[in-house]
Every structure is written in structure tokens, then in C-alpha cells.
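Format notes (please read before filing issues)

Several people have asked whether sequences and C-alpha cells are stored in separate files. They are not. Every record keeps both together, in the order shown below: the sequence lines, then the C-alpha cell lines. Line labels are part of the format and must not be stripped during preprocessing.
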Amino acid sequence: MSILSLRKRMRGWGAKIIWGALIVIFVVGAFAGFGRMSSGGGRGSTASGGAPSVVARVNGEKILRDQFNQVVAWQLRNASMMGGGESVTSFISTKERVLEQLIDSSVKLQASKRERIRVRGRDIDDEVEKMATDDLRNAQMQTSSPKLFEREIRKKFGSLDAFKDTLRARYSREGVKEQVRLQKLEEKIKDRIHVDEKDYRESTARIKGHVLMVKPASEMLPPPGDKSKAKSQGPSKSVREAEAQRKAKDLLAQIKAGADFAKLAKENSDDPTTATKGGDLGEIGMGDRLYDYGKEFDKVAFKLKPGEVSNVFRGEDAYFIVKVEARRYNMPADYEQVTYKCLNTKCQNEWTAPRGAKTCPKCKQDKVRQVSEKKKDYVKGLESQRQDQEWRSYTEKLRDDARVDTLDPELKAAKKQSQGRWKSAVPLYLEALKYADGADPYIKSPAIRYNLAVLYRNENKLDEAVSQIKQAITVDDSPELRVQMAKLLRDKGQKKEAIEELKMAAEMAVDESPIHGVLSMLFRDLGQKDLAAREEKKASTQGPGGFGGFNMIPR
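Then the structure lines:
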């Protein structure tokens, strides 16, 4: 049954209450688990209409255009239901996010095969049932009357179970299978990490000590006017690294021979925050110096006992020596306490107290039960935190190691644009225009021309930028594009024409659009105080963040 036919069957005031909830779960269900890749050869390099049928390859596996467009459609529809909408200024950014999601899904699915993750039919059935139940519950929660919701569902479908059958049919079993596969992969990776009470105690450690940092010498740039092709006039990177390491080892030898650590640090350390204090770190906990010193610092420093000095080790951009003078554990005050619950049905009080409590402090009855131990809660919390860190590190490495080849010219251009490689992006956008406004509904010339205008504006090619916006307006005359035209005309010194463009944008914009805040600023910039005040009044109805989500050509 289609959404439209369902809507026709559910007329009346009761249906109006629940329709918003139903449309959400049907749309989401239709696209559940949209990560499917293709590793086959495909049927040619371009899709019907000319655009490449393969948007990108991830470690050799293809992301097909049909699949890519399906997710783009879902993203746009979801944004529309959440009160947003399709904007010519952010359309390509939406497509970029979709590609990133599909790349992320691809590398994880490939990893799940290497990890030999298996998904049974029963696993798919269980997940479908869970999704249908969750969607039904969420729909009920979104309505003003859950009872009315159930009554309407029973009236049209016979029962809630019959309605859930309709929901189940909306899910792609292949997509759900991939979703379950990714869940199992995450569980397997997280299960590598286990934390006990000793680990927790060590995580609370705080140390006092000193640090000595030796940084490799900076690369020397050629003198001004030197047109030689040499990247530097000094020693190579490997030589500079070796010199820094040698200096650190020499300082360590002096420390082991009895030299004063603080004196050597004050004279030789390259750490700007501690050198003047003789390398004094003060009291620090794990992660406090992560940004400055890198992950290796904690691994070394917190294993040292008071009085011990580390060997030379490589940290963040430097070589380090650490000396620990004192160590303590910052354990929670209630670590050894437990949580109890009163079994009196009229009381059911829960409280935390030392082990051995036998009386409820609220009702004074002695029927109590221990429900948890604080130490177990703390240990479990740390384990969960470290498991999340392990999963993040694992997925980040998957992405870093992935070979991604983007074939779609529009998306290639957007990538280069974000990297600041403007001149390389322009010809790719021009190539993408060949496929725009044709068979593929998601390759749109106004969005491409808007981005070309941004690039031309960055290079101060205002006439070219204006030309692109003009052509975009002939296809999609939107307030966003009129605003961009106004900015360009203002920069060209055509103030009168810029004001007229802003007036047209103001007439076209709906009352709830965040563009009114932008219009207010531009009118004021052009000396139109009355018009600015009018737009500011409209923008004030947006509340905090009313200007958000609207991209503009840079000033």
C-alpha cells in the first residue's frame, strides 16, 4: 500500500492527528539500512542521461548512482519533514554528506567481512520486529492522544499487529541485514575492551612531576626572492629528527648521572608552558596534556612510580623525558557504597549507603534489597567509555586507510572546493553542468552555478560570478540566489541594482525563512535602515539560531 493510498483511507479529524507520525515512520522504514554496495562490473561508465553510473569507488567497491540518489531523496524528504527544505546554496553540501555516509558504511561493511561477521535470518527478523515496534511507539508518542491513535489504527487495519505487518513490509531485508552486520561488528570491536577495578583505580591516578621536551629544529624557508626549487636551506627532516633525539638522550644521560632535572629543563626544554618553571607539570590526570604532548605521554608517565625517570620517547612533535615525584588516586567518595531499594510497595525508596544497611531511612521498615554497587557502576561506566573510544579509533583507521576514488565530477569539484583548490574545482563543475537538469533529478544547474559563482568571487572575477548567478536564476528564481546577486552587485559598486535584488528576495521569502536575518544585515549595509528594520522584525520570530543553515557567498 502506498503512502498516498493510505492517506486517502484515513480521512477525518482523527486521521489528521496521527498522519504526521505515520508519514515519518513510513518514509524512514522505506530507507532502512541503505548501505548496499556493488562490487560487480556495472553496465557501462555512465547512467542513462550521461552522468557516471558509478559515483565513487571505495577500495574497489562501487557506490552506484541509483543507490546514491535514493539516499539523497531520503535526506531531502527528512529535512522537509523536520521543517527545513531544499536550498540551492546547500544542495551540493547535502550530496557531499550523503557520499560521506555511504563511504563510511562501505568501509565498515568491508571490515565486517574481514571480521567474518555472520547474520542469520533470525537476526534480521528480530531487528525488523524491533524497528516496527519502535516506530509504532514513536508514532504513538508524537500524537496528542495515544488512545485515539490506537482506535484509528484498529479501525483502518483491524489491529495494531496488522498495522505492524504493514510496517514490516516497508523495510528492505537486505538493508536491515547490513544494519545488523554493522551492529555486530561494533559489538565485536567493543568487546575487545574489558575494565576491572584495578583499571578503574589507575584511571583516577594523578601525578606530580617534571617534563623535558626537545623539539626537532624547524624547517628553514628560502630567503625572500630566492626562486630555487629547494624546499628548505637547512638539514633534512630526518637529520633534524636525529639531532633532536640525540640531544634528548644526552640530557637523559646527564639526569641519570645525577644532574638536576629542573635545572636542565629550564635551560633546554622547548615546552613553552613549563620550561620557565623547570619543567614543573603541577598535578595532572590522564588526558590533561593530551593536546600538547600526545597519547604516548599518558602511556609512559602514568606507569612511572614516584622517583622514576622515563626513557626518551616520541610524543606530539617532540621527544620527551618525564620524572614523577608523587602519585595519588582520586577515588569517588561513594566508591565502596551500594544502592538499596525498599521493598515496601507504598515506599519503594532507593538510596545509597555503606554496605550492610537493613532499614529504609524513609519508612523505617527492614525489607530492603541491594540493587547495585557503586564500584560496579563506576567500572562499567569506564568500560563503556573506553569501548566507545576503541570503536571510534577503529572506524577512523578504516576511513584513513580506505582508497576512495570519486568519479562524479560535481562531487569531485565540491571536494576540491572544500580543500581550497579553487582552480581545480572550476573545470569539474563545468563538466558537471553537461549532466544537469536532465535525466538525473539531483544534478541541478542552479546549485552548480551557485558554487561556480562562489569560486569566481574568491578569485575576484565578479563578472563571471554574476553571469553564473544570472543563469541559475533563469532555472530557479529563489530568494537565496537573489541575495547572492545582490552581494555581487554591491561588490561591483552597483548599489542601486543590489537594493532592487534584495527587495525581490524579500518579496519572495516566506515569513518563517531564516533569510530575513541575512536581508536585514545587507539592507543595513546598503544604507536602507527602514527595510533593514522590517526584515529584522521578521527574523526575530525565528528565535535563537534563526540565521542558521543559510550559506552565502563570502564577503
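For reference, the curators noted about this record: Residues 1-48, 543-555 have pLDDT under 50 and may be disordered. The beta strands are 54-58, 61-64, 205-214, 280-285, 313-314, 319-329, 338-342, 350-353, 368-373, 404-406.
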